[in-house]
Protein: Substrate-binding domain-containing protein
Amino acid sequence: MITENGADFVDVLTADGIHDVERTSFIEEHLRALRVSLEEGAKVRGYLVWSLLDCVEWADGYRRKFGLVHVDLETQRRRLKDSALWYRDVIARNGLPDGRTRRPTLETVAARAGVSRATVSRVVNGEASVSAEAREAVLRAVRELGYVPNAAARSLVTRRTDTVALVLSEPRHGGDALIAAIVRYVTSMLEGAGKQITLMLADTADSRRRVVQHVEARQADGVVLLPPDDHGPLAERLARTGVPVVLLGRPAVASLVPHVDVDNAGGAAAATAHLLGRGRRRIGMLCGPTDLVAVQDRLAGHRDALREAGLRPLLALSGLDRESGAAAARRLLSDHPELDALFTTSDDLAIGALRAARDLGRRVPEDLAVAGFGDIDAASCTTPALTTVRVPVEDQALALARLMLSRLDGRHAGPVVLPARLVVRDSA
Amino acid sequence: MITENGADFVDVLTADGIHDVERTSFIEEHLRALRVSLEEGAKVRGYLVWSLLDCVEWADGYRRKFGLVHVDLETQRRRLKDSALWYRDVIARNGLPDGRTRRPTLETVAARAGVSRATVSRVVNGEASVSAEAREAVLRAVRELGYVPNAAARSLVTRRTDTVALVLSEPRHGGDALIAAIVRYVTSMLEGAGKQITLMLADTADSRRRVVQHVEARQADGVVLLPPDDHGPLAERLARTGVPVVLLGRPAVASLVPHVDVDNAGGAAAATAHLLGRGRRRIGMLCGPTDLVAVQDRLAGHRDALREAGLRPLLALSGLDRESGAAAARRLLSDHPELDALFTTSDDLAIGALRAARDLGRRVPEDLAVAGFGDIDAASCTTPALTTVRVPVEDQALALARLMLSRLDGRHAGPVVLPARLVVRDSA
DNA sequence: CTGAAAGCGCTTACAG
DNA sequence: CTGAAAGCGCTTACAG
Structure:
């Protein structure tokens, strides 16, 4: 660790409020680490205070100066061990590891192992045709030197990049939870398979050009593209380069590019059936922007479910946000005061509808049942809590990653459609 | 576009419900594109139907077969133009562009421009010392051939990667909105500066090792690391390699690694002052996991504000989720029924507290004022709407990107602390 | 201002 | 099973 004047410093522990049993081994462990550091010449330049809650005030002086860490015991010990190992490591190397030192290359490893570069390459890449002794020697040299292959050099000759581009466009639909889940799960699965992720944006003409260039220059072995609402053309264009492309959401136009989607129609039909099942017969619908494919599908599901009951849909077009949902609901309810239920193509619209209902003095669900779509985080926080259709964001992310992996393996794959489950709460 | 049996097909337009004025030019434009395609030998294999809402049912047959696009006029025209240009482009190239064709190299460009590879390289990299004619010739050849430099070859010799690693660890604090904002804004700004983003996870021992290897092997020119709560050691370790590192959130231990943070203490003090200003004197606090630095700082701000008013804090420790917040609130309120306000270190805890208050029959804010921290999406949806402290997620993301860029430019930089503003709603 | 040439660190036929 | 050698596509002193 480095203080503000750049000098190394080691920890001095002051721990309070720890169970005695635990304290002993904890302190011992720490002091051992400390002793090692001191013996190896580190100078004490400050204090790191670990303490529990009841000594916050006492410890405040230290906190101001060096930072105070409040941790539970488990964390405390893990961190302690980490930093102890780390100190030893650093000190063992005699001061700062030098970033400017040349990294070892195949050449270095080969020399140390007493074999040729070709053999080292074979071992590193897991080829079978290497003798046990050679392999052993190479592996040892790799370990001792901390050899890591140079990705650029490898990619230059293999023409692979072991990289997948994750392309985000404007999130008109889906929201932050979906983005976060995809970023996390797609990355996790692809990293597990030895791929690297390049994050790209495709929200402007410029950035879209960049994506096309990137892919045409073969800087990615595959592309995960989301959400595609406005980007059918982009997806097709990328697919034409021969690089595997995978989409989130059904594209507007039938396509051979495989995609992952949620059963929007089925979910909307389920929500509508639920309203019907509660005896509602005059059901209005708040419908988000109809150029979004997901909105189209939800609309279709709603319509089909109504038709089956011999009813016809009654729509109010709306934007994407709560304010616009509230306005559409007000409009619909004043034009059609007889309505006893509202279905909306998104939770944000439903939350707007709840506000409108409150403003208009309609009790939910007694006078007006409201059902949304999405099960966003806020849906369970409203009063009444929102009945809605859950969009399984994590499953979508995982399916997307799996689809990409199978395409990278050269397998063909069709679209994946995940079920959307009704979540019944209080609003309908 | 490709149908399911792999054949090209062109669009046939059927548009309804469009204002007549618009319709004419729209259809004309489309038919022109169509004619071009047909003249150039494309076969009609299907229909793409653009229509507006009122012909949904009629169009359903087409929808089933080929996908139906509902679009507003603006979108319609843009998309039409896109696909028309795209058709022409593809067809002009005589069928599918071949992904397996060799891309042009410096060599190719040099030959075409009648100069040496070195000169082409100089032009491409914007060096000044090139004659106007040579530059002109090279630029033309680049344009005509669609030349894009091979990143691997370039990186091999320059030892730069023009890549920044964006490292995500477990999101114990901050949530999806923060992740989404960072992914979006950091990527946007760095792409604008010609950098590529490599997305990495650091949530397991394995993935952390991968990150260290990645950086030590110089596969990134910089690292944006978030959230650092458990990763002080990782940040220090990466910084030791000499690669610029930038952190989200104040690290637990004082460090030279620059970071971006929110004024957690100031925000908590403001919320507490607000409660005091409303005449509340018996203020309890729900305190999230105290090993999180942000929680420590919020706690400190709360305590300082109380102390200034001659009061002492009354804490209940809690986890991170709503359930745990509700439980802590129940505990605190039954042990101390005299409490007239609660401050919480996060909105999720506050939402839990609202539930507990309702269960216990306490009216909010009359009997019990509640203030949270974060201003998450759900905060404005509760009843009563939550008074809270806004954490400016976009500003954080932008500051993080700026910090990284200045570090990449070799400039040193200190920590950035962004203000956290009180948002007064109904709960306090 | 320009070109010939060396070299970045790998992989991969090819020959043995 | 192994090594010598060519070559991936670029940049950059160096010499002119």
Remarks:
- Chain B touches chain A through 106 residues (CB under 8 Å).
- The CA atoms of residues 132 and 138 of chain B lie 10 Å apart.
